[in-house]
Amino acid sequence: MKLIVSVCCFLLLSTAQSQTKAPEMDKSPMDMSYWPNNYPLLKMGGKVKGEPVARVIYSRPSKNGRTIFGGILKYNDLWRLGANEATEIEFFSNVTIAGKAIAKGRYTLYCIPTESKWTLILNRDNYSWGAYTYDAKKDVVRTELPVEKNTDTVEAFSMFFDQSPRGANLVILWDDLKVVLPIGR
Q1: What's the alpha-carbon Rg for the chain, to the nearest Å?
Q2: 95-154, pLDDT tens digit by residue?
Q3: Dihedral through CA 102, CA 131, CA 54, CA 34, nearest 10?
Q4: Which residue has the higher pLDDT, 132 or 9?
Q5: Dihedral, CA atoms, 59, 63, 68, 74, nearest 10 degrees?
Q6: According to the 3-state scheme, what is the secondary structure of the chain?
Q7: Which of 185, 176, 159 has the alpha carbon at shortest distance from 68?
Q8: Cβ neighbour number for residue 44 with a 10 Å cutoff
């Protein structure tokens, strides 16, 4: 009887310990940026009411001494605009991109980088990992954006909204490059 109780206690303890072990830290943690910036803090402080205009959810790979553009990211190849799952952008109201009306909703962002310009793609196929299931038939809009050289090197891929007179710009930074996607209201 003591043996059975001891075995049962051992099994319960070993099961409990294995269930509480956290997964390893992701090398490219997920991040989220809002338009307006710091929307959750503004809302908690009573400085905004209602929903934000937009938010972007993406994973942040790091440079880690690697050559990014033209290296690990090949020019003219489709990129998920981050790491892991494809980057998602959600609009809480109707907006415009490249002169095209974009309906309120959630979309996936992809990119085709070249040395001088990026083609940013807004696509209806959500919840995809990487760009493996990309379907061009689900593109909502494509727009070409110039690549700017940055004076600083940005270690971790970053995206944020910057207010503009006609709406906001989604600023994309990594390594020594900067690309800006204008979004109108």
Answers
A1: 21
A2: 999 999 999 999 999 999 999 999 999 999 988 877 878 999 999 999 999 999 998 999
A3: -160
A4: 132
A5: -40
A6: CHHHHHHHHHHHHHHHHHHCCCCCCCCCCEEEEEECCCHHHHHHCCCCCCCCCEEEEEECCECCCCCCECCCECCCCCECCCCCECEEEEECCCEEECCEEECCEEEEEEEEECCCEEEEEEECCCCCECCCCCCHHHEEEEEEEECEEEEEEEEEEEEEEEEECCEEEEEEEEEEEEEEEEEEC
A7: 176
A8: 10
Rounded Cα distance, 102 and 111, in Å: 18
pLDDT of residue 92: 96
Residue bearing tokens 């269930």:
19
Distance between CA atoms of residues 175 and 79, nearest Å: 16
- What share of the chain has pLDDT > 90, as a percent? 70
More confidently predicted of 183 and 131: 183
Instruction: Return the amino acid letter for 15.
Output: T
**Main-chain phi, psi angles of 40, to 5 degrees:** -60, -40
